[in-house]
Structures
1.
Amino acid sequence: MSNTMPVEITVNGEARQREVEPRMLLVEFIREELRLTGTHIGCDTSFCGACTVLMDGAAVKSCTLFAVQADGAEIITVEALERDGQLHPIQQAFSDDHGLQCGYCTPGMMLSSLALLAENPTPSAKDIRKALAGNVCRCTGYQNIIKAVQTAAGQLRGA
Amino acid sequence: MEMKFSGEFTVDIPKEKVFALLSDPEKFAPLLPAFHSMEMKDAKTAVISARVGIGKISGTASTELVLEKSEAPHHARYTGKGKVMQGAYRMTASFDLEDAGNGALIKWQGETQLVGKILSLAGGGMKGYAEKEINKLISSLQTALSPDSATAPAAAKPEGWFGRILRGLGGESEAPTIGETESPPPSPEEVQRARDESRKRISSVLDTSRRDAKPARKEDDRLIKGKGLFVDDFSPAGLLHMSLVRSPYAHARIVDIDVSRAEALPGVVCTLTGKEVMEMSEPFIQIGAGSPQNITDYALATDKAIYQGDPIVAVVAESIAIAQDAAQLVEVEYEPLEVLTDVEEALKDKVIIHDETGTNATFHGIYEYGDVDKAFEEAAHTVKIDKLFFHRFGSTAIEPNACVATWDQRGEIDLFSNTIMTIPLVFIAPALRINMDSIRLRTYDIGGSFGNKITNYPYLTLACLASKKANGAPVKWIETRAEHMLAGGHGSERAYLDTEVALDGDGVITAIRSRHIDDIGAYPRYEPLGCAIWSQVLPGAYKLRNIKIDFNQAVTNKGPAAPNRGYSRLPHIWFMERVIDICGHELGIPPDEMRLKNYIEAFPYETPNGCVYDSGDFPAMLAKAKELIGWDEWKKKQQEAREEGRLIGIGIGTTLDSGTNNWGQARYVNPDAPFSGNSTAATVKLDLDGMVVVSLGTFPQGQGHETTAAQTVAEVLGVSPDLIRVKTGFDSLNDSHTAQSGTYASQFAVTGLSAAHGAAVKLKAEMTKLACFALDAGEEDLEFGVGDMGPQVSVKGADRAVNYWMLANLINSNSAALPEELRDLSLNARHVYMPPFQIPDVEKKIGNLTLTYALQLHISVVEVDPDTFQTKVLDYAIVDDCGKVINPMIVEGQVHGATAHAIGAALVETLPYDADGNAISGSFTDYAPLTISSMPDLKCFNRESPSPFTFNGAKGMGEGGGGPLHSLCAALQDALHGKDIIIETSHNSAMSMFDQFSNGKAKGVNVASR
Amino acid sequence: MYPAPFRYHRPGTLGSALKLLAELGEGARPLAGGQSLIPILKMRMDEPSDLVDIGRLAELMHIRQEKNRVCIGALATHARIAVSAIAGEIPIIRDCAGGIADPQVRALGTIGGSVSIADPSSDWPALLHTLEAEIVCQGPSSKRAIKINDFIKDSYTNSLADAELVTEIQIPMPPENSGGAYIGFKKAAPAYPAASAGVQLTLADGNLCRDIRLVLGAAGPVPVTSRQVEQQLIGQPLAEKNLSQAAEALVELSDPPSDSRGSSEFKRAMLRSLFMRAANRAMQRAGGEKITGSHDYV
């Protein structure tokens, strides 16, 4: 059953058209079709959130979504955060506050954080814990991630 | 899981007729509840395809049903076996028929053994499900045997019950039809508008202003941009993908493998079986002495599968999806064998896992120091602890094991992987029958390891073999999380039996004797090194001199163990911490006083087995930690809470992170092991363009080696770290490694930085010589620094300088001007750091086994909810001392991370097995690695006691010694004060606390005082 | 991990989706948010021939109040329900919708999908019992409403007929002086609850119980409820002793399996405690207190 279907998905502002197998996951579309490898895969039961991207403004796990379901959608991946060589405040904060070590979970963490900050510019530590409950980090113990999200919130408010 | 069922019923037709139906597979099979289709292989054998649904599972099960016994007209017996949705089962069903009036009495019994992932998904719901299915079978038998049924009934309608709901088929429920709802549904425009608003909110956050700023670590720049290069990001042209077929059985003989259907699938390039692997490669080197030397461990299972998840067949295809499709088509026939999941049982050798060895034991040794018997004779108190247990868990790095292997037509291998030390080359090259230099081993970004990835070498080897069979095409293997949970490297378990502790009248421990057993799962892949490594921290933080540990290790039918953060030392320190805590608790000595009475007092301190604890101050750490947590206030609150019936506990954990191994300790487990000391290399070169380039022999996974190595080299040269380039990852082409290079055993700050420092000093010496020539000045007149032309060497007080490019140029492209005596310079300095170790005394097991000891003291406050058994961490304080701190931010990050791992292990994470060897935590969803929701806030403080043994005063750190496992267990012990409960296992989830509260078993601790 | 191949369809209307499901027959599955189905497909625990993506049918996305009832379209996501005005008015709905899994899953997962899957440990099927919800099921030529306790028939088994879909959940508005609470206990947000309990009650004068609905989730193949136990509480003061007896009686009816989330005995103990907590929180809310809180971890 090697049927394929056309899809058009806007990724980081650019409309991308491909013929894909219906079973292709969105994460595979992003990583393999578009070669945007900043979105990672860490588990297979929708637990770890390493594959988190923004779809039409909401954080979603791109491993639990077929590319065909995202046909017509707007996707934001980690690659969209930096502009003209300058880091987004969330990137700067994760680095400054040492909110990352190995960096594998970081893109997903930052995108979940941005989804939170878009809704809530002044999140408490509790709000951050709730928003990042579906993103696993095995390196940092989360302390500095909470700090980084708060730092970024401050910078975004000041911007 | 084994299920037995039996029952009886009567029918109104004579038993001969009944027998005719029951003894004909062709008629009997369609009565099975989930029957879909069948094919008769011969008169007695039906190959049945069934649609079954169990828990979240609905899919095709294939069964071979054989009429094994047929004694007309009273007895028939079937056996069946097959696979069902990532699992396998075997069943028997028999019928005995008796006359009953005009009809027949049918007595039936059935037995099913079920293994595999299916159980982890369906959980304990399986038995209920099976009962329902059997009831369905019986009722369809009754229908078939009713007198009205002239002929055998038509096949039951296929009805996977989960499948049914998913496809929207279903029941018979009647309900009145209702009218249309009154208000109109939202229009597509409204939905679109909501989406646009959501997009707009994100855009406003994305479109914020940005500043020009640099990331804090060198590594961060690529990682925060999503431009790292993890193994799965590496996809060379012509890439093929490997997927593995793994055993659902924990212990089974492999009777037959059929790969024909898999190989016929378009897009499949080849398959590999154990038989081929045996022809193409050698078994891996074994570290242990004696019987373990006979263990044959190949990249694939050969004659037996010995744990659930043991890889049996590799499938290589053009895409991973096709490889996984093909893996489903491989047929493996197993003959299940008795399963060993209990290490004490394994040591009895009634069942042997590695047939070629004759025993399951992989190590036995006695570690005895001082005069233990005398100390017990003189003891004022003797405390006996029947059993303590350190549970199985893993660090489950967020990036799974992975590699891309290319064994090209020239016979050279490019192995891009996420292994974490050079040692795998020592395993892989001989297995592949090639020189080590024929393998280019490299890593780039690694998504965490925590020791676990040391043992991924069988898979790396397998990928090389797959590439060879695929004519040199690159082959990528990415472990799935489900595979990782079964086979990706678990931390080992340890049982501590019959522990006895001697104490004097003041509560000072004078002696300990105990018997310890490590359960390492199916294969010793880095073991039995763990049987020596724990003794780096033999007395823990305490001053007792008399210790006897009878240490044992054995294999079981569980996932192979791998080193796991705090490897082997952590389980031992946990033991020592439970001992001190239980003794204090039993003798009524307050926990802080108990520690103070027993702490080692002066450093450097030589332990009874010859290890030297380099520096530190436990009492000062305790005082600081008490201050951080607010000890006195918590004591007061605890008292008030107790009066209200609330269970609040305060616990202390004192721990050590020993770093920089003396590999001579390997001789404790194998006297012939050609290892001792430690060596790590680094090169620092002045490149053609004058750039300082550092190559490390380490395999960083988030520890910031690029950042700290640049700091170290920059300090030697008197420039900013920004001007130093440190190569990312490891590459054996850089020649910056020795056999002991790697990122393990908390050693980078010592070994890696010493090597980098040594190489930088060598380079600086060469640059000095060249600069003396170029500037016509004496060494004492030169100054390293940065000037108008960038990094340079200048003459003090004069306006003369050469920059790095000019110096590099003298060697690399303008050498004719150089005098003879400068022509042996290379500006490419390699330094091998070798710590000052001696070979330990193998007979007495005495020697200095590690160079540095970072110390940690944790205090936690917990509350146990007596109704829900949940433990909430109310407060947490950490005092860490890792000597001179190179980079405070990185050190603190490591402290946080190590703390989180041990909190996870103590309260949430466990990898249990059932008696059949089924892994219960088969997915992240079951295992639930610690999330942000359960991580408490930490209060951290850093003390600095510089190590006298390292050039920079630093100590290795990062493993953290598992502080929370100790402090939380102690806090729980304190919380349960007066309940006659001993915290005897390292894992204390709500469920284990429930068991503690309700099992009512004997306490397992006795105190004898005189 | 990759699912087995399938054909994908995305009909533009509910009518065409129902027609398509009828035509495709037993190999086809409806795909809504996919948050339960896709992990199952990835593990190849199910291999449908066709997926009919109903996820974009705007006609099933509504959340609205009508006279005395609340109507929630099958495709309303947990996230939208959690922040809806209705969740503000009926706190037990917010407890559930805001506590299911994590933000990413809540953004895509739908109430209709959750109810249809009828996972014994999932939150909606249990919660909806406390609100006496009716499940509107629509087929190619029929439409009917089924009470939630008739809809959930067994674990993973519902009452949908051939090519029928859940289109709407209807909930009667609780009267004045009502309050409810739902608490699930799990190891982490993205894990399934090991046990859960819900209580929705209405107080009469003098803090007597005017009406009450109780449920235990992850407690057996279907949510555990008992009209009889509820009846015994009506007209009574909701004192510790009465509630505790109710808890015992309900737990007696439960049959939680032993699995990776805990042993059967442990789950029973949890059910009992969660029930008491939920009941107390429900009473406080019925008394007008504003309390937030839903699932609990570790």
2.
Amino acid sequence: MSVEIILFFVFSVCTLAGASLVIFSKSPIASAMSLVATFFFLAGIYVLLFAHAIAALQIIVYAGAVMVLFVLVIMLLPLKDLGPAFRFTPARWIGAFSAATILSGLLYAAMQWDEYLKNKLPLGTEATNAMSPETLSRFGTLEEIGLAIYTRWLFPFEALSLLLLAAILGAVVIAKARI
Amino acid sequence: MSAFSNLVLSPMLLPAMPASTVVLPSFSFHEFQPLLPAALLAITAMLLMLTEAFSVSKSRSYQAILAVVASAVAGFLAFQNTQLPAGLILNGRGVMDGFSSWITLIACLAAGMSSLLALGFFRQRNAERGEFYGLLLFSAAGMSLLSVSNEFVTLFVNLELMSLATYALAAFWRRGNRSVEAGFKYFILGAFASAILIYGVALLYGATGTTQLDMLYHVLPKALEDSPWLVWSGIILVLTGLSFKIAAVPLHMWTPDVYEGAPTPVTALMSAGIKAAAFVALLRVILHIGDSSAMLLHILCFLAALTMVVGNLLAIAQRNVKRMLAYSSIAHAGYILIGVAALFAGGHLGNKVGVLSATQMANSTAEMLRSSALQGILFYLLSYAITVVGAFGVLAAIERREDDGAPNAWDLSKLSGLATRRPGWALAMALFMFSLGGIPSTIGFLAKLYLFKAGMSAGLIGLSILGVLASAAGMYYYLRVIVYMYMRPPTVTETGIRHWSTEFILAVSAVAVIVLGILPGPLLDWLSQASLFSPN
């Protein structure tokens, strides 16, 4: 077992544990802190995938800025114990059943994955095994991301700026006390 | 494979070329032509945003007029684009075809009409704001961009642009718990649906290495062989996310609450515009990811049947007219799904598919089936948009200010005796109800006729018969509104205040419902020329 594999298992198990704690913690602040942990371990997985820039952004934006917002909102909300939030209604049974179906499908896919990787590379990415050290050194850098965003991904990138503008406008409208 | 390996979106391929020789994208002017309506809408939205900051004038009516003019011009540009040949634009991120231009036209129509409705509605309530019209136009721009999206990331961003603006619109005017609940519920559930959609997209990307729809079309059959579970999980999740947006059963639960709680002009926009745009996304995705699989056709047929039946059954029980129209919009989504299934059944000629569908009729080619199904869907979306904006317009007109936020604001009793109080409104509402129910000589009848005919000729006979039966059952609750308006004595003496813009919308939609219901010829000719980009 290589170091990467071991690290991957450490990071993924910790990510899942953190995510479960987010859901099952009683206190909202504990949930928020577990979310920070989840973000950090996720960033570790990104690093293993050579996506250093994404990992850094993940920590700066999510673990930093977004989490501060979360904690601030929790602080402002009047929190009361509303009793057990989870009761099984018929609709929730259907929901649980659908979730279980999708989960089993994904687990089955994951079990076949090993064999799948041995035989065939993912279809669109025939170059996965042709990563020279030179390409690896530049892969995932800000330069490469910038090149991708401003050339081939120009259209969605510009649409994203419209989206952000609309979101800001919407937030301002919602935040007004009364219209 | 090698033919498009340099186009594939995988990050793996980027490092292959040195940074100095990066090929900059070169776009020609005609590629931007399909984006012109959206650009106009977005620029006007920004302008409207700025008027709120810099305007010194007391009256704000010009904002609505500006929004209407922008929608009209954008609609005209979209109409000009309907004749464009089908093709890929902007490195394959977008697509240009007549279909997307017609959807843009419907979006502009919905935006313009609901802006006019909002003019009277918010003026009476002293709640006119430039942000409202700005968000409305952003939403319309999102619909237009969504209709040209040909790649999952682009599609997702544009879907979110449309949805985010609408979440804010739904919670724009907060009176009582219901409107707050509407905005919040729509936002939370919408975000959840988007997350499901993007999860599915990630799985599909993992299986195929591309997010571009036309490339997915080519590599998906092989991916299905290699890792069927992964691909199917992805497809199911993507379909789930999109079904939420069109409000198909069993993902319809949010619809009545949101439609009821949102300000009535916004409800009109949601049922006319959002629905059309979400359908184009669903249709494009299905056309590309499911063309080769009969399984997906089964799922679609099942979804259509369930949506029609449940939507109509739940609508029957409603006394609240706004909720009733919400459930009826679910039922209408079911009818349109028949058209989508018909469009898609063309690839399965000769296969017997399931209980709800039978083998196709002889002497019709896949090409003819596609074009008639496409025409049916477009005509239906257009007719539904015109009719439902009118119907919500009547509701907006009779809404009284002292009922704002009250639970019984849209009870059937508020409509009783409307014929004696406001004969014009009652007549218009009767026409809209006839059209929604599908009574001959209205546009709604023709729309159902063409859609069910397309379903029949594609071989979905059982499904089409179910559709006819469901719409017959739906007549009950549409006619009940007319009974209350014409045959019950008035219980409320006071009616809503008249405003020229509302009356204008009611008159225009009522005339359109009748005229296009009797003389659909030119419109049908235009629609039949609409092209649909297909990957093969």
